[in-house]
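2024-03-11 09:14:02 DEBUG pipeline.ingest accepted 1 chain
2024-03-11 09:14:02 DEBUG pipeline.ingest length=149
2024-03-11 09:14:03 DEBUG pipeline.predict start
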Amino acid sequence: MPISNIRASMMAAGISPITDPAKKEIFDAIGDLSGIRLFSAKLLVATYIQPRKSKGGIILTDNELQEDVYQSTVGLVVKKGPRVFVDDETSKFFGQNVEIGEWVVFRPGDGKRTQIRGVNCREIDDTQISAVTDDPTIITHKQTDARVK
């Protein structure tokens, strides 16, 4: 499916990568995924990499950004297999689902790491998705002390 068709279907679902700069950057970089077919209940998720400059103005090192490739717990759904979130004998989803263009949460070690056109991605089973978030910046894999402001 051409990227324009993906964007059109996302817009129809009320999800727009164009208004979210992080989503737009990922979809522009990853390009057309029509030549990739995911099997069964697999999702292709682009790994969220935090911006080089933090909200507080701190410039992050290459090592800190590289850590997100391996330890990130949030990704953007960019493609879905035909049986994603379909009930079967071993898994019941009770109507829950995710859409292309949504940020999802998973464990750092879940999925198979891969790159598509330079975009870090993971192939993840639907059962490994634990949540959906509107804002990938509020979820971190790093140990912080929330009491310190």
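2024-03-11 09:14:41 DEBUG pipeline.report The radius of gyration is 16 Å.
2024-03-11 09:14:41 DEBUG pipeline.predict end
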